[in-house]
Amino acid sequence: MAMLEVKNLAVNYGVINAVKGVSFKINEGEIVSLIGANGAGKTTILKTISGLLKPVSGTVTYEGKEIQKQNAPKIVAAGISQVPEGRHIFPGMTVRENLQMGAFLQNDRTAIAGSFETVYSRFPVLKERINQDAATLSGGEQQMLAMGRALMSRPKLLLLDEPSMGLAPIFINEIFEIVKAIKDQGTTVLLIEQNAKKALSIADRGYVLASGEVKLTGTGEELLANENVQKAYLGG
Ligand code: ATP
């Protein structure tokens, strides 16, 4: 059984059909990447999985249960955590306070302390800046903070929306290395990226979206080698 299965998902904004009958699945332990141009519907799919948007039809099944009607906190509690596009960290709060917000559903102090340790070992730079206002971090550090905050809820499935967006090349490589390491530590990842080349190079499988529909699927390697994908998304 897949960890997450999206079936015939359709999502509208008023009269705009942003997602038109999309189906895909994620197995436990995988990095699955959704790639596609601006407006293809990637962010809409992510927000629907995390409960921020409700579909007009279709299902999202997580660990055997339909979740498309559940609210966002319940979905976080079930083990799905999203890192939104543009990070959305709390700029006037410190690094530590931002991370604390990620543990908002947890009461167990020992577990929270353990989550802090896990995040600090994954992102040593955050530990160095623990009392610094988040607004003073660089773009790459802010992305790490947003990822760290999502990891504070100890997700089984991490949803990443454009983690490399707007980052300097050196940080882009680092972020993709971190995504791989998060997977290696046992967290399943759904990765949305404009940087299709990087995303497919670390993905087990990928889906190519265009105009709200899945056009193509395959392993990361297969999609990287696909002529149409190269022409449309890899600048080849
Ligand atoms: P991007 O990389 O630009 O975020 P995307 O693949 O994530 O692109 P979505 O953001 O999911 O695409 O957008 C899918 C479609 O829905 C687009 O046509 C977009 O203009 C439209 N859309 C997105 N958000 C809204 C909104 N709040 N109201 C109306 N239309 C929207």
Automatic annotation (TrEMBL):
<dbReference type="InterPro" id="IPR052156">
    <property type="entry name" value="BCAA_Transport_ATP-bd_LivF"/>
</dbReference>
<dbReference type="GO" id="GO:0005524">
    <property type="term" value="F:ATP binding"/>
</dbReference>
<feature type="domain" description="ABC transporter">
    <location>
        <begin position="4"/>
        <end position="236"/>
    </location>
</feature>
<dbReference type="GO" id="GO:0015658">
    <property type="term" value="F:branched-chain amino acid transmembrane transporter activity"/>
</dbReference>
<keyword id="KW-0067">ATP-binding</keyword>
<keyword id="KW-0029">Amino-acid transport</keyword>
<dbReference type="GO" id="GO:0015807">
    <property type="term" value="P:L-amino acid transport"/>
</dbReference>
<dbReference type="GO" id="GO:0016887">
    <property type="term" value="F:ATP hydrolysis activity"/>
</dbReference>
<dbReference type="InterPro" id="IPR030660">
    <property type="entry name" value="ABC_branched_ATPase_LivF/BraG"/>
</dbReference>
<dbReference type="Pfam" id="PF00005">
    <property type="entry name" value="ABC_tran"/>
</dbReference>
<dbReference type="InterPro" id="IPR017871">
    <property type="entry name" value="ABC_transporter-like_CS"/>
</dbReference>
<keyword id="KW-0813">Transport</keyword>
<comment type="similarity">
    <text>Belongs to the ABC transporter superfamily.</text>
</comment>
<protein>
    <submittedName>
        <fullName>Branched-chain amino acid ABC transporter ATP-binding protein</fullName>
    </submittedName>
</protein>
<keyword id="KW-0547">Nucleotide-binding</keyword>
<dbReference type="InterPro" id="IPR027417">
    <property type="entry name" value="P-loop_NTPase"/>
</dbReference>
<dbReference type="InterPro" id="IPR003439">
    <property type="entry name" value="ABC_transporter-like_ATP-bd"/>
</dbReference>
<dbReference type="InterPro" id="IPR003593">
    <property type="entry name" value="AAA+_ATPase"/>
</dbReference>
